[in-house]
Amino acid sequence: MRNRSVGLLTLAALVMALLPGTSAAASTRASAPGTTHTAAIVPNGSWTTYHHDDARTGYDPSAPTATNVVATPGWTTPAMDGQVYAEPLILNGIVYAATLNDTVYALNQLDGTVIWSRHVGTPQTFGWGCGNISATGILGTPVIDTSANRLYAVAEVVIAGATTYHLFGLDLGNSGSVVLNTTILPAGFDWTIQQQRGALGLRGGNVYVPFGGRAGDCGPYHGWVIAVPTNGGAIGNYYLTPGQGAGFWAAGGVAIDDATGNVFVTSGNGTATRTMTALRSLRTTPLSGWLRALWCARTRLYRRTGRPTGAATTRTSARQALYC
């Protein structure tokens, strides 16, 4: 986690359809009533994933240019049932916010009033190997599927006495009723040492869910990216880092190349000695754009200043020379 010195950053393009794995998944429905607000809702822009788009640019080209703007007080939400770590999302005049108490709120974009809320389960409050967040309900930023009119969120929940992570799909046209509930529990996954902090990504009928360790880096955790089907099918594809550590804990989660569908993640705190070889074998296209620039900038820094203390001593310079 971030309270340790970060080791070698690993850049990975994951073609998830090629990665084998197994897990059980169950899809169920829930019909708990939501509270509906009758105030007018006026669509005004959209922000359906972390930092606006799959590349996490934080840039909305349709937004008006801000010139000579004087900041004025806006609205403040009513009290919610938990802290909000996830980035709020916007669609069709509604702001969606998720809490650590496993509740998703739909707020009127004009005045912040609650249109409906959906509590998806009881959050876990103890039992971790380490960590500094409690409760840990919905921590990572959800993602909205505009074509299906669904919001997908991952929550750490206790169901029938069993704790793990679940991907929930909420029907935005029906007060957030739960239309998808898939258990995330691939072989070898241990919820007590894994934390879902990074933003979710959506592509090709899958929600990509990144995991890292908990604060304190306890236990033999890994970085995981798990592809959860949006149709309720069983989880078949996932990736986990070799060695120990190298968690995917950055708030931005996964970035997706819209041209190829490749999934990119960054990791730190890893102990593997063959990380670059393993990840390179998964990449089917050359590094390009911002990813290549970042890769090469690190290479130039190492050449000038030497490798930072604690950074992995893999044979990266020769591989980086192929791209820089």
Number of strands: 17
Overall pLDDT metric: 76
Q: Could you give the distance between the termini?
A: 30 Å
Q: How large is the share of residues in beta strands?
A: 25-35%
- The class by helix and strand makeup works out as mainly beta
Assigned CATH superfamily of the largest domain: Quinoprotein alcohol dehydrogenase-like superfamily
The main sheet comes to: 5 strands, antiparallel
| Total number of distinct structural domains | 2
Written overview of the protein:
By secondary structure, this protein is mostly beta strands. The chain folds into two domains: 260 residues, Methanol Dehydrogenase, Chain A, CATH 2.140.10.10; 38 residues, no CATH class. Helices cover 9% and strands 27% of the residues. The protein has three helices and 17 strands. The strands form four sheets. Strands 6, 7, 8, 9 and 10 form a five-stranded antiparallel beta sheet that branches. Strands 11, 12, 13, 14 and 15 form a five-stranded antiparallel beta sheet that branches. Strands 2-3-4-5 form a four-stranded antiparallel beta sheet, with no helix packed on it. Strand 14 and strand 15 form a beta hairpin. The radius of gyration is 20 Å and the shape is globular. The protein starts with 9 loop residues before the first strand and ends with a helix. The N terminus and C terminus are likely disordered.
